[in-house]
């Protein structure tokens, strides 16, 4: 694999062989791709990544009709090149091994031991390329009693206790455990994996004490799910008390939740006593700030049952926009509870350029009529080497001939591989 001349960014010159699919692995490799790495995604011929079919919703063609390409795939596969190779064949395995010999990084999310039968496991590829950084993403890790189990985001949200602290309390309408609205464990695993890969690159290539050697990175959704419990886990480990669901309230802060307004709802995120005092003055209720029950955050948490209903009576007297206008210059965190459509229409979101449209291929090459795809910009803002969003998520096998040519195969050899269905 060679890095395209158009590639730039902090990771320009780094080559990634992406054997992952669905979300956690692809989220990791998309971050590396955004930072300039050349990421080649290997997909199953004729089928591709599972998420290409995870719809609706589907991408629209120029006439506004649904295509067969699910939008799910586009969330985590931009800036990559797609090749289709059947790794169950000897010829396919040979091609992937050749790619691994030229790569810096491999990312895969097969079951533990799943790639050994193809000679594409960590030990086999490191024998070919000792500098290779090999990142395995699994549900439960490379060891332990659950190691061979398949793991999915929703399962891990349930197992780690995340669902037990998400949603309304059992005593409230609609109470019960609730998953988070996006696959947060997959996403966090992708982020943790990319951090681990960058650390391994530094250890390998550090001019002062670099080892020159790659290493195996063992990323487990379960481990990440436990880690991102953060303060909730810390609280349990400190006290032995199991936290429960509190809806949109915060276990350690008050008032820090949604409030009804004259025309809907708003979010107040008051994190210290000064903010509470300024809110009380602006709301025409200065006595709350001096009330012995509410003078400090700890007291407000203790007496939230008295404070919150009193506040709700007052917040219903103005519209959401009026509250925001009243508080925005007083350093009191307050905002609307937007739909995703409203969020993309927000002035700050627009100013930051968070919706980006990227070309998918040259005119005339489209197989399903989709030539541009709009996605969310990278949130990484590096002043000297910012992310470079070069290309939209690729069509299935869009770059197969290109990548194989870079491996030294001529048109006749590529045609023969296509004829025997290796690619």
From TrEMBL:
<dbReference type="InterPro" id="IPR023606">
    <property type="entry name" value="CoA-Trfase_III_dom_1_sf"/>
</dbReference>
<keyword id="KW-0808">Transferase</keyword>
<dbReference type="InterPro" id="IPR044855">
    <property type="entry name" value="CoA-Trfase_III_dom3_sf"/>
</dbReference>
<protein>
    <submittedName>
        <fullName>L-carnitine dehydratase/bile acid-inducible protein F</fullName>
    </submittedName>
</protein>
<dbReference type="InterPro" id="IPR050483">
    <property type="entry name" value="CoA-transferase_III_domain"/>
</dbReference>
<dbReference type="InterPro" id="IPR003673">
    <property type="entry name" value="CoA-Trfase_fam_III"/>
</dbReference>
<dbReference type="GO" id="GO:0008410">
    <property type="term" value="F:CoA-transferase activity"/>
</dbReference>
<dbReference type="Pfam" id="PF02515">
    <property type="entry name" value="CoA_transf_3"/>
</dbReference>
């Amino acid at each position: 694999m060679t890095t395209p001349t158009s590639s730039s960014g902090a990771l320009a010159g780094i080559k990634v062989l992406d054997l992952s699919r669905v979300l956690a692995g692809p989220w990791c490799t998309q971050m590396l791709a955004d930072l300039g790495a050349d990421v080649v995604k290997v997909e199953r011929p004729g089928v591709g990544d599972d998420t290409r079919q995870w719809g609706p919703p589907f991408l629209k063609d120029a006439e506004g009709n649904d295509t067969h390409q699910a939008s799910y795939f586009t969330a985590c596969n931009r800036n990559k090149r797609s090749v289709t190779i059947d790794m169950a064949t000897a010829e396919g395995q040979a091609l992937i091994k050749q790619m691994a010999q030229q790569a810096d990084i491999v990312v895969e999310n097969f079951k533990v031991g799943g790639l050994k039968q193809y000679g594409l496991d960590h030990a086999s590829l490191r024998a070919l390329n000792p500098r290779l950084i090999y990142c395995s993403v699994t549900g439960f890790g490379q060891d332990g009693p659950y190691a061979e189990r398949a793991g999915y985001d929703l399962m891990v949200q349930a197992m780690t206790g995340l669902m037990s602290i998400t949603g309304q309390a059992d005593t409230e309408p609609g109470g019960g455990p609730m998953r988070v609205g996006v696959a947060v464990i997959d996403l966090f695993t992708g982020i943790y994996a990319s951090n681990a890969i960058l650390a391994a690159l530094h250890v390998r290539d550090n001019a002062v004490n670099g080892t020159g050697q790659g290493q195996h990175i063992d990323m487990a959704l379960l481990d990440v799910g436990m880690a991102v419990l953060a303060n909730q886990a810390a609280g349990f480990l400190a006290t032995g008390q199991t936290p429960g669901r509190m809806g949109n309230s915060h276990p350690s802060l008050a008032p820090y939740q949604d409030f009804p307004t004259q025309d809907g709802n708003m979010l107040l995120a008051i994190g210290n006593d000064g903010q509470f005092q300024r809110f009380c003055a602006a709301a025409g209720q200065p006595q709350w700030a001096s009330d012995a029950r509410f003078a400090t955050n700890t007291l407000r948490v203790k007496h939230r049952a008295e404070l919150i209903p009193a506040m709700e009576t007052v917040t219903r007297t103005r519209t959401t926009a009026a509250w925001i206008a009243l508080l925005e210059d007083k350093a009191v965190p307050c905002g609307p509870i937007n739909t995703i459509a409203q969020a993309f229409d927000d002035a700050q979101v627009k100013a930051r350029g968070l919706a980006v449209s990227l070309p998918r291929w040259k005119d005339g090459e489209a197989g399903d009529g989709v030539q541009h795809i709009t996605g969310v910009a990278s949130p990484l803002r590096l002043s000297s080497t910012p992310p470079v969003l070069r290309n939209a998520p690729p069509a299935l096998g869009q770059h197969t001939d290109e990548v194989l040519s870079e491996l030294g195969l001529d048109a006749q050899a590529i045609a023969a591989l296509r004829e025997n269905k290796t690619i």
